[in-house]
Amino acid sequence: MAQKAWIRGLGIPVLGVLLYPAMTTAQQPALNLMPLPANVQSGTGSLAVESSFSVAFTGYTEPRLERAGERFLKQLARQTGLPLALKPSKTGKGTLVVQTDHASKEIQEVGEDESYILDVSTASARLRASTPLGTMHGLQTFLQLVDVSPTGFAAPAVTIQDQPRFPWRGLMIDSARHFIPLDVIRRNLDGMEAVKMNVFHWHLSENQGFRVESKKYPKLHELGSDAMYYTQDEIRGLVAYARDRGIRVVPEFDMPGHSTAWFVGHPELASGKGPYAIERKWGIFDPAMDPTNEKVNKFLDDLIGEMTRVFPDHYFHIGGDEVNGKEWDANPKIQAFMKAHAIKNNEALQAYFSGRVQKLVTKHGKTVIGWDEVLVEGVPKDIVIQSWRGQASLAKAAKQGYRGILSNGYYLDLGWSAARHYAVDPMSGDAASLSPQDKQRILGGESCMWAEYVNPENVDSRIWPRNAAIAERLWSPQEVRDPPSMYARLDFVSARLEWLGLTHRSVSRHMLQRLAGSASPAEFAALRTLADVIEPVKDYTRAQTALAEATSATPMNRVVDAVPLESDAGRRFGELVDQFVAASCHDPAAEARLRVQLTTWRDNDALLQPLAQRSFLVQEVGGRSQDLAALGSAGLAALDVIAKGQPAGDSWKAQQLASIDAAKKPKAQLLLISAPAVQKLIEAAAAGACSSAKP
Amino acid sequence: MAQKAWIRGLGIPVLGVLLYPAMTTAQQPALNLMPLPANVQSGTGSLAVESSFSVAFTGYTEPRLERAGERFLKQLARQTGLPLALKPSKTGKGTLVVQTDHASKEIQEVGEDESYILDVSTASARLRASTPLGTMHGLQTFLQLVDVSPTGFAAPAVTIQDQPRFPWRGLMIDSARHFIPLDVIRRNLDGMEAVKMNVFHWHLSENQGFRVESKKYPKLHELGSDAMYYTQDEIRGLVAYARDRGIRVVPEFDMPGHSTAWFVGHPELASGKGPYAIERKWGIFDPAMDPTNEKVNKFLDDLIGEMTRVFPDHYFHIGGDEVNGKEWDANPKIQAFMKAHAIKNNEALQAYFSGRVQKLVTKHGKTVIGWDEVLVEGVPKDIVIQSWRGQASLAKAAKQGYRGILSNGYYLDLGWSAARHYAVDPMSGDAASLSPQDKQRILGGESCMWAEYVNPENVDSRIWPRNAAIAERLWSPQEVRDPPSMYARLDFVSARLEWLGLTHRSVSRHMLQRLAGSASPAEFAALRTLADVIEPVKDYTRAQTALAEATSATPMNRVVDAVPLESDAGRRFGELVDQFVAASCHDPAAEARLRVQLTTWRDNDALLQPLAQRSFLVQEVGGRSQDLAALGSAGLAALDVIAKGQPAGDSWKAQQLASIDAAKKPKAQLLLISAPAVQKLIEAAAAGACSSAKP
User: Fold this and answer.
1) How many Cα atoms occupy the beta-carbon half-sphere of A399 within 13 Å?
2) CB distance B514–A148 less than 8 Å?
3) What is the value of ipTM here, to two decimals?
4) Identified catalytic residue from A70, A222, A306, A322
5) Cβ contact (<8 Å) for B498 and A491?
6) What would the DSSP string read from start to end of A322-335?
7) Coil, helix or strand at residue B592
8) Preceding amide of B63 cis, omega within 30
9) Which of A339, A416, A605, B343 has its CA 20 to 30 A from that of A247?
10) Per the residue annotation, which of B322, B575, B591, B683 is the catalytic one?
11) Rounded to whole angstroms, what are the CA distances from A504 to A242, A365, A524, A571, B34?
């Protein structure tokens, strides 16, 4: 088809105008699309979305498209509050007419055509796609276009020609360390569909749990899961649910390390003597499978055979990360085997193991994917490397002819800002200088939600909204990388995601209510004022600063568990300070807003302390509340100095910085995120940077 | 058993100390219990609730109690965030030991023993009850006792001896005018359990829909429901779900009026010629069953027979309200029948019909309940009257030997405040002077959620939290009637109810987000500031002031649909003004808070208007926003006058009152609820009531 010629190239828009919200004018309202499409051409006017709205499927149809249509209409009804008819039209006519050319693969493949063209005019809308995958993406784009307008709900007139930059756009959820029930998984798949992610990587086995029913070896889940596992029927249902949303499900069974839970029921697989118990702590542990034991190979042959029948995807993740080798070192039989077979070290032993497992996976008709460590000499070229180590590792693999995906930089549990994740590009660093052919081997990336410090209650809030920024990185053209534009759209999309049932925003209020108990409305407001500008410590600091070692039985009901990983209020305060200082402090409106905010912080502690006396969980942040008051006072002092128009000098600066010193340090595993911005104000006041041109 | 002798009397506490939060001292924290128990004796110290918490059932047990125990543990885990074991202990030992004496009736009866005794000491807790009904109530009380403390989660040491004042404490939900799906019904049953209501009255047929599958007459639901009905299997599941929570399910099939939807499939039942279509409008309509047609009697015999097998409760509600008689007047055959049988008017004809239906219900082993109109001469004494007319009607029925329940004053759709519902007592008015024997016939009451202006999305927010105040009226001793105490506890209980899955608080933010579209955070905050102090118009004013007649297809996505029916912020502002004026305006803290609030209102309109330009749904409240600004300005002017210490006089007062005149009137079907409080400030300033003693 002629219309599609121009969208064939991967990630290279050859026609149309790239239109980013940050570039729009007042006449041209920004489109709140995330991920931003490859090509957007804005038209004039808008299509009214009224109670009579209908959608019709033409061309190729299948039951999955019918269901997608019903889901689309239900979501549109939620977004608008209009009493829409919730079934697609059977007449071929509708406000939105969809045309799909042909089926996609029964088992979704990497790199299938996901492109679509969406034309919205003032009279109607038309969506065209080669396959249902593109159709489903286009429906999500249409949903994002619909917004309230001066005359009713409407979608702006626009032509969108869109396709993904990368074919592998994944989210990994670890439901092994903390079990995550299916309803929570399902609503996260709904979120993935909304932002066009297409791989759900399910981390299913760990030291802390084996989460899949095995009919062949039932002791795996019976003794290795604390009765928290998915039945095979449930998994089949989940895989169907994902396929309905254009999402592949890649299971991971982590081997030969990260496998203590297997050994509870099957100690014969291990390299140590046992007995083994489900691990309750976090970290890297000694137990590992015995690569030299033929019975292990036979067992894995059976199990992989069983699991490849439960999970239809062509890829099968074998983990392979972080083996410390202690059990191997301590086992004379293994040492003898290594000597006999000239296996010179543990790395080589792991390579030997990986090679054998890879053969089993191949035998059962699947392709191996594994973490960096599985890439050892002689491994066949068809495996896929998932890099937790970074672009250098990824580029090296690509050069050697291996395909890979990036996860380094996309670990959601590290608490990075959306902007920081957003800046990570699979094609940057060493990958940037790859040949075009090698670049083709970089299939995309996956965000990872490791579950030491998340549970079913707060996992949504650890994934979203930041995951939407990663989804955009993997879908949109590489040039789409303006953080202010991203944040503006993320705020909108985040609200929309809650309509799908995700709880990333609402759960924070619930959890704060729990720890506030019978707080008065004023006390609760004070707690929220504090909670709005604190973030959990980043990277692995939480584990490193714990007063008592956390285990899987540690309650997650503290402030650090309740607040979002990224503070919107803190970011906005920082932007406001930047704006104020950039205007040489001649911005009365910004100054007034800063004063209101700083005064609130200064006075907040007095409101909060009575509650801290009554709740041990609020007590924990009593110190942070005092620190916030200090920030408020210091910021106001800086504004006073600036208002006088005279630089305050170094000794004043030293004194003020000392007063916020405590605020800048982590406490109760929490960061006061507005401290650096207050420091900027102090420095501006001290240096007179703002006062020189003061009228 | 000796312990129970003192709790036998209905509603008359004979032992123990009535302890209301309003009476507590600083040393004695108020208990956030709702409904307040009949007897509370506070102890010293508290019982720690930790991860090791367990519950054991002793004495009589049954699967329902096991499930209640699991539900209890799950809810306790939610409330505390502790990783509790979620199964009751099998050893008979536990932190909370429950003893139940014997089973309750298989089909729950009116007036079964629902009492319980709950003893909490610093070491353990003990719950005793005659039947599972009392046990389940006691578990809910324990859940309400648990709160965060300086040292962890805990329940205060206390002895509670509790039983209900009335045996019939119901909530009616109309799922006929707007269909309410089962998941929404279920979470409302969870809410009922939490506040100890024990009757779910299910209004299932109306002009706008017949909502139950009939196997005998399938055209009823096939043609009368727009495919929105409950299957018999679903109903059986719901009845079991309710029984698990100590709740009876009383079905209502409204006859002979309110029945247009029946006639779509069965026009032969009607008194008019037809054809009939499902009614889309609201109001009282002409169609009515033909009481003179033997085929109607036969049909109802079949249908009532079928439905009494689906609904096990001993009571069967036949409606019977609001027949306008026009179809009867216009039907010569009916007129001839009346003449032949000396039926002198339509009221008598309806009595004739009710009498026949009552016989059918009796034949099928059930007792009739109906609205006031079913009480006509000669009706057997065992029927129950549900009074929408009021206490006089109820008292009259009681004197005649009929049992009754009160619903007048408990119509949740009228938008009354919790305090106003709370003041309505089934035993007040004419009922207060009844003999003790007649009083026994007043079984309790039911709140009613009529569904013209609610849908599945916002129905929770129309029922809760106000329904909890009605639940307390029907459970707690009559002397429990202090609104400040009620509101303090209601606020706490309302937050807890959201843990059960009810959405009465969160939905308002969601719906405001919808109508704000891509608002900036500042604009959205401005919308919330306005939304916080507006309430939908009361009683039947919404229907009377609609610009276009509402139908069942009218979208419910307006501000009037999104804001709660009672404004907490408005109530608190009013209390603050009262406190300020009562202190002769010598309350600097209150004055400061009033100034902050009034300034916010004055300046809010400028923030909101840009959004109103972009959203037709916000535009609708643009006028209310200006009115709020006027209130802010006028209130600040009044505070300025008061600060000067000179009465401002009548002409100033007239001028200021004129400036808030628009604010006092309904607009966009919304009331600006803080207007009367601002008027108080103006009057205080004008009269110098506050200035005479000013220092």
Assistant:
1) 11
2) yes
3) 0.92
4) A322
5) no
6) ----HHHHT-HHHH
7) helix
8) no
9) A416
10) B322
11) 21, 38, 20, 18, 30
- A553–B51 C-beta distance less than 8 A: yes
> Which tens digits make up the pLDDT trace of A343-387?
999 999 999 999 999 999 999 999 999 999 888 888 889 999 999
As a whole number, mean pLDDT of residues A9-32 equals: 44
SS3 A593: helix
Name the token pair of A223: 């003794």
Q: Find the Cα–Cα–Cα–Cα dihedral B634, B639, B645, B649, rounded to 10°.
A: 20
Question: Can you list the positions of beta strands (E) in A268-402?
Answer: 315-319, 367-371, 384-387
Do you find a cis peptide bond into B426, omega within 30 degrees of 0? no
Structure tokens at B488: 């303090």
3-state class (DSSP) for residue A672: strand
Q: How confident is the model at residue A12 (pLDDT cuts 50, 70, 90)?
A: very low
* Cα B411 from Cα B454, distance rounded (Å): 13
pLDDT computed for residue B10 by the predictor? 30
| A373 counts as catalytic | no
- Report the distance separating Cα B256 and Cα B354, nearest Å: 8
Which residues are within 8 A (CB) of A665 and not within 5 positions of it... i.e. 6 or more apart? none
The residue whose two tokens read 């305006």 is B585
Count CB neighbours of B138 within 10 A.
27
Cα–Cα–Cα angle for A523, A524, A525, nearest 5°?
Answer: 90
Tokens of B220: 């009823």
Nearest CA in chain A to B514: A79
* Alpha carbons A569 and B364: distance in angstroms, whole number: 64
pLDDT at B376: 83
Measured CA to CA, the distance from residue B298 to residue B292 in angstroms comes to: 12
pLDDT tens digits, one per residue of B434-468: 999 999 999 999 999 999 999 999 999 999 999 99
* Cβ pair A505, A512 in contact under 8 A: no
Shortest CA distance to B404 belongs to which of B433, B377, B378, B373? B373
Query: What are the CA-CA distances from residue B86 to residues A558, B52, B54, B69 (Å)?
Result: 21, 11, 9, 8
Mean pLDDT computed over B491-502:
95
Residue B615: which of A81, A148, A492 has the nearest Cβ? A148
